[in-house]
Amino acid sequence: MQYAAADWKPQFTAERRVLNVGDTKVLKWGGYGKDTKSTIEVAGKYVWSVKFDEKANPIAVSLNQCQ
Fold it and tell me: Listed GO molecular functions (predicted)?
């Protein structure tokens, strides 16, 4: 997966392009073929969160299982 503006420019991917459940990773510039990979091994509900700075730039992403 990638995180992007409505017109797909810019695109962002998680640092090292892997996001495990419970992780928070810095977002880096992405692009075609630079997707973030996540494996969800336990059935359930999950939430992806994107953190933005004060200028609305995306800076981090996290993946967590809902309680």
Answer: hydrolase activity, acting on glycosyl bonds
**Cis previous bond, 10, omega within 30:** yes
User: In the predicted model, what is the mean pLDDT of residues 20-30?
Assistant: 95
CA–CA separation, 16 and 39 (whole Å):
15
Range of the domain at 7: 3-65
Please give the tally of structural domains in the chain. Answer: 1
Fill in the DSSP letter of residue 38.
-
1 falls in which pLDDT band (50, 70, 90)? Answer: confident
